[in-house]
Design goal:
The chain has no helices and 5 strands. The chain is an all-beta fold.
């Protein structure tokens, strides 16, 4: 079972979960930080994140593609 980030935690997009040919199809950048708002109740396995610090909202992306950052990374 995959580990779901905690609500409102800082996360990053985990490009290691995707084949390299798909990396350019996502709006996320390797060094960017996002705030994990949580899983969407009507779309299990999909979440809402907010780009930090711009506030741009992204929804409907797979929860498993985001990993919670550790304190050393922030």
């Amino acid at each position: 079972m995959e580990k779901v980030p905690r609500q409102y935690s800082l996360v990053k997009f985990d490009f290691d979960t995707l084949p390299e040919e798909y990396h350019n199809t996502y709006p996320f950048k390797k060094k960017d930080i996002y705030i994990f708002f949580g899983e969407m109740p009507n779309m299990p396995g999909h979440c809402i994140v907010c780009h930090y610090p711009t506030g741009k909202i992204f929804s409907g992306y797979h929860t498993g593609n985001f990993i919670e950052m550790v304190e050393d990374e922030t």
